[in-house]
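Q: Could you fold this chain for me?
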Amino acid sequence: MVNVPSAVPANSVIVSVERVGDLAPALRAANVTVPGRANGRTHDLVEIYSLIRVLASRPYRLADFPLKLVKRERPDFLLSANGVAIGIEHTEAVPQNAAKEAFLRDRGIGPETYYAQPAAIGERAKSSKEIRAEIEADQMGEGWMGDSAERRWVEAMTQFVSDKTQSAQSPDYARCDRTWLVIYVNWPAPILNHAKAVPLLTAELAKLATWSVFERVFILDESVLVEIEHTAVHVHCVNHC
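A: Sure. Below is the predicted structure, expressed as structure tokens.
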């Protein structure tokens, strides 16, 4: 892994390879460690962390090379695959209250082992004081019933896709041959059943303008990469390089 500055300038080359055999070592060399939210975590580090894993986890053809990944803005990256320009937009799916909680826990507040709490789109933003009190109380909370983890996850992913679909249609967004969306998921959903959740999500995405904007939507967590196209779904084990 390399030390990447907290802010990566636009047009920085992250990965550039001529042949498929060069890709794995290049991705390992570009891989980054993302610190905790209270310890120097930045959007650029999270974006590069996510893109390295997406590129490392999916299959390739010889015709995809040479391959180059460049940091950009609107979209966040430009992937050139043998002359085909693919714009890649990135977002992190994390509840605002969970992000504040993680920041406080990184500061040493609360026990190392604790109960994960459900989250919902549109939940009330809590103050740091409220969240600290909840951490110190260390209560189990409401928990998850039935398929509520899957349904809340689907609701969250649908909202993040919807938001990015709208922003990618703005006039200042660069047009590419293809456009991908990568969602790095830090949404609380313990023991998520992908076999149940993904079909529900694809049904929701079909109701949006998703496929008129994005060719593919990638949903990445620490173990599974779900790659969704208009007419197909592929599930990959995450390669952490």
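A (continued): The chain is about 35% helix and 20% strand.
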